[in-house]
């Protein structure tokens, strides 16, 4: 028998994978190319259902991982002063989120070859259902003159 927590994790993963697959099928995947060692700016521009809604939490997932590699939590105050967390094993100290940019952006600097992959940004709102944005990041070799 699965515990209640396990059921919640399985259901959340199912819905996340379904939303990501649907975004890919509808062509809602943004492609981004960056030179290794450069600055990768991954935009997160989903739109809430309610125009006056507030974003509370932003989660970034890499490839098919079910655990985020980066999170930004603004449940305790203004959106521009949220709590940041990055998976040290994946991103180290190279990642930071800019909530005040338009659209809000996750920056990876310097970009490493292992950063290449599909990133999904999920935004949880106060009133609206969660929304996602998908970015396919390609990291190419260093520029040769």
Automatic annotation (TrEMBL):
Highest rank taxon of the organism: Eukaryota
One Pfam family, short name: V-set
Keyword Isomerase: no
Keyword Amino-acid biosynthesis listed: no
Signal peptide: 1-23
Domain annotation Ig-like: ranges: 37-138
InterPro entries associated with the record: Ig-like_dom (IPR007110), Ig-like_dom_sf (IPR036179), Ig-like_fold (IPR013783), Ig_sub (IPR003599), Ig_V-set (IPR013106)
Keyword terms of this UniProt record: Signal
Protein name per Swiss-Prot or TrEMBL: Ig-like domain-containing protein
């Amino acid at each position: 028998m699965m515990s209640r927590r396990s059921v919640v994790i399985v259901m959340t993963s199912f819905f996340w994978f379904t939303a990501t697959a649907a975004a890919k099928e509808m062509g809602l995947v943004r492609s981004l190319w960056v030179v290794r060692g450069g600055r990768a700016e991954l935009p997160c521009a989903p739109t809430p259902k309610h125009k006056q809604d507030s974003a509370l939490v932003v989660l970034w997932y890499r490839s098919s991982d079910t655990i985020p590699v980066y999170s930004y939590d603004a449940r305790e105050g203004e959106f521009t002063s949220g709590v940041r967390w990055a998976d040290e094993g994946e991103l180290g100290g190279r990642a930071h989120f800019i909530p005040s940019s338009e659209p809000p952006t996750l920056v990876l600097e310097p970009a490493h070859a292992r950063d290449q992959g599909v990133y999904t940004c999920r935004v949880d709102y106060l009133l609206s259902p969660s929304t996602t944005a998908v970015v396919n990041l390609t990291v190419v070799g260093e520029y040769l003159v």
